[in-house]
Amino acid sequence: MNAIEVAGVSKTYRIPHERRTTLLEGVLAAFRPVPVELLAALQDVTLAVPRGSTFGIIGANGSGKSTLLKVMAGLLVPDTGRVQVTGTLAPLLELGLGFQHELTVRENVELYGAVLGYPPAELAARTEAAIAFAELERFRDAKLKNLSSGMAARLAFATALRADADTLLLDEVLAVGDAHFQRKCFAVFEELRRAGRTLVLVSHDLSTIQRFCERVCWLDRGRVAHLGPAPEVVSLYLAFMQGRSEVTVPQAGETPRLGDGRIRYTGGALEQEDGTPAKRVRAGTRLVLRLAIEAHDAVDDPNFGFVVWAGGQMVCSTTSALTGLPPRRFAPGERAELRIPFTAALANGAYMVSVAAGSRTGDVVYDWITTFATFIVEGSTTLEGVADLAPAFAWAGPAAAAVPASAHGAGA
Amino acid sequence: MDRRYWHLTVQLARKDFKIRYTHSVLGYAWSVVNPLIFSLVYFLVFSIFIRFDVPFYAAYLLLGIVLWTFFADGSAHGVTSLLARASLVTKVAFPRQVIVYAAVLNALMTFAISLLVLVIVLTATGMPVRPPIVAFPVLLLDLIALTLGVSLLLAPLHVRFHDVGYLWGVLVQIGFWLTPVIYRETVVPDGWRWLLKYNPMARIIEHSRQVVILGQWPDWAAVGRTTVMVGLLLLVGALTFRRLQARLVEHY
User: What is the pTM of this model?
Assistant: First the structure.
């Protein structure tokens, strides 16, 4: 069951070189056509947001993220294609819409709440809840203009979170408030997700996207560059943003891959030191990443790298240049094999390895495979975090008397 | 329209109404002071300086001005409402009519206060309440429909071409003199009567004076014609609005 289905949606903006806003100009233009710039904001975008999931939209500025959100919200009519929304939907494209400086905090929440569709019977109760969440009870009857802009943003976000639409569309709204308020918002997010709400997030903050989104759509100049699980899309996007190469949209079942192909990884594996595949390993094990390389063209001094990810969070990224591998010149058709031993000093969990080949300056990507290998780490003593620093606890002085078994269990 | 959107309409109108009179000592009183002062000035000019000889001229004047003020005020708010609420309209999807309804409702709140004052003034001056007054609500409905119709028709056009708002402002000013607000229809020469015959505001004001001040039953056929005229305008306005609202966001 999908909350939102977008099928083959295209949207082109017509941007006149001279904007006509007066009637006379409009009439004159009928005889003297003004040159019009066509801007394809969305091209054949197809995606589905599963009900109850958190869906992310990422992309560079001007890639069509906001247009897509507006099409989903029903604010813009697509030129072609269709959008189907199941259930109610609250778009939060801008915080504090319609907030009026001359009204009090409470009146503003009432108004914004009505815009967001608070049920009339619950308006008063929800207004109070929103004010309490924003921690602005003391300012309930103060005019909004007397609040700081941070407070107003907090109030707006708190109000927005109380809207009980099945689906919430959020455009960059997490960037408000201080660290304390953000933590509270994240908690509410978790709550909303557990309550089975569908969330669509547009954000430049990739860590937020990774933290909350199950699936992510990456838009590049109005097209879907990649659509898939968050770690995969985000890492692909990051690699793309670093290399700025053309992206080849992978076919179904194919692993996402970037690069101009002058150097390709043709094989390899992640293994333990004894040569067995590394699927489940103990924390602190030495692993070996074996990579078969083939040059399709003459390449001077390529740089090879790999990235280890934990659920989309980058754990480690490094390259052959940084680790001191001597430069090597590749002739067309030349093959080579690279061995990269490293220590899995990692906490328990699932990890993904991406591999990259590029120019030493980093501006050309020859090859990038997002999901080259995956492995699971077990037996780590790390409580929180992603690294296992192999700590050992011991008393420096003489050992104290052992705690009797009865006293040990007294607190339980 | 959904109950939820009706609720939103009321919220928008109430908050706007409140904002309108913040920072003023007299507050809501201004909504009444304005038509009262103008009635007084016109009374001074036309009854004492120029000596129009109309019985109950003060009552005539006050009623005409109260009705006209609502029309001028409500349509001015209504026509510019979509543009004034740009941030809301471009960011949240809800029936766009809500914005126009709220603007007219806001003017209606002021109008209600003015009507109350009108009743007080008429009672104080010894105006008897006679049965034909029951026709007054029909005329009020016509007035509201007319204001709403104009607003729905012009508000989306105003978003596209800002001239529409200015043009409407000029038309309302001209209309004030081409409508028997401060004079009686009877002073207009026969050759010019047609101007008033097809002017719905002229019809509404004249009928209102007839039922409220003179206590006569109106010509129901004429009231019917006015209602049909106003109803058609409302229909055209609503249909135009429906057609233009889909791509409204792109024209801001």
Answer: 0.73
